[in-house]
Structures are given as C-alpha cells and as structure tokens.
Amino acid sequence: EILVDGAVKATVATGGSDAVIPVDITVTAGSHVVSVRGKGGATVLVAGIEHRTGQGVAVYDGALSGATARTFTDPSPGQALHWSEVQRINPHLLIVALGANDMAPGQSYSRTPQQWENDLAQIVALRDQHAPNAGLLLLHAAAPTNDPAGLDRLREYEARARAALEDVPRTSILYLSSLWQPRLDHTYTLMTS
Predict the structure, then answer these.
(1) DSSP type of residue 175
(2) Which of 45, 59, 97, 144: disulfide with 139, CB 3.0–4.6 Å?
(3) Residue range 154-159: mean pLDDT, rounded
(4) Quick check: 68 and 119 in contact, CB under 8 A?
(5) What phi-psi label fits residue 92: left (phi over 0), alpha (psi between -120 and 50 degrees) or beta?
(6) Cα separation, 51 vs 189, whole angstroms
(7) Residue 166 pLDDT
(8) Residue 29, beta-bridge partner list
C-alpha cells in the first residue's frame, strides 16, 4: 500500500515476485508524508517520486542508491520502464549523478574506465532516444581521496567522461571532485553546447 498523509492512495500487487510497477498519485500543493506499507513477503523499492516545487519546476527522482552508469544502460525490463518514464515526463533537463560506484576499486559492480566511457555514451544515446530535447548534466561524483593511486584513477575516469561527453550537444559535466580536492589542480567550467 502507498499512503499519503496516512491515507491509502494506491495498492500494488506484485504477485510475490520482483516487479516494476509504475504508480501515479496526484496530491495538492504543500507538504505531504508518503509512505509504503508492505502487506506480504515481497521487497518494495520506491524508485522515483515526482514532485513540483516553485513556479513550473517539476523534479522526478529516478535515482537508485548504489547504481552505476551500467544500471541505467542495462536492457532489462526495469530499465526499459525507467526510460519510458523519462519519455513520458519529457524533461527539459536530465541530471545524472554517477561515478563513485563506477570507479570503486575492487568491487564486483565497479566499471573499468573503458566501460565507464561506453556507459556514458549509451546514456547519451538513451537520452537522445527518449528525451531528444532534454539537456544532460552529468554530476561526476567520486569519493574524496588523498591517495595518489586514487587520484590517478579519478583523473582517468574524468578523462573518459570528457571523451564520452565533451563535444556532445546539450550535454554538460560538473566534476564534483573539484569541490573537495584542490590537489587535482583543475579549473572546471560547466560545459554547455
């Protein structure tokens, strides 16, 4: 059950197995509490909430904690649904924060620099297919490090991001590492084209 301010607004049946089920609930302007209450043995993951704030600004949060760029390029039915939702929303701007998990050394889910570059190029292709008028802002997130090997790894992933995205129209990169690591000695400009 999905509740808004304590009232049941939707009931979703998963049939006891993993499923991706979109649910639309409209609420009035203002502050609300949204909660999910399990009624069976299935795990429920809320993958995105759209809400409106300000004058005509709509925010859709399709983030998944622990995701890599591959998560969003995976051709599984769940990701196909994610991209069809992007198409339905028809955004002006997609903001994608990736990098920390992609470049996590020694983890089974981490991506090689070449895989990272390929994944980013695929995200651009998916953006072009499902939201052709949207800008794309990659927030290149990376965990802070003072380790020289970690800094070299970070530089390599940043170079791969530039190779995949730098000259792509309507695409920008913001390197979050520039905010925490002055030793990188980079000057970053938000690229827009």
Answers:
(1) E
(2) 97
(3) 89
(4) yes
(5) alpha
(6) 30
(7) 87
(8) none
pLDDT in tens, 43-70: 565 655 555 556 666 677 777 777 889 9
Report the chain's terminal Cα–Cα distance, integer Å: 44
What type of residue is 103? M
Task: Centre a 10 Å sphere on the Cβ of residue 115 and count the other Cβ atoms it contains.
Answer: 16
DSSP letter at 30 equals S
**What's the Cα-to-Cα distance from 174 to each of 44, 80, 137, 141, 187, rounded to whole Å?**
32, 26, 7, 9, 11
Tokens 């998990």, residue located? 101
Q: Which residue has the tokens 């929303």?
A: 89
Query: Is residue 24 helix, strand or coil?
Result: coil
Nearest 5°: CA angle at 89, between 68 and 60? 50
Integer Cα distance of 37 and 52 in angstroms: 24
Residues 6+ apart with CB under 8 A from 117: 160, 161, 163, 164
**What is the DSSP-derived secondary structure letter of residue 182?**
G
DSSP 3: E
Environment class of 184 (CB within 10 Å of its CB; exposed 0-12, middle 13-18, buried 19+): middle
pTM of the model: 0.69
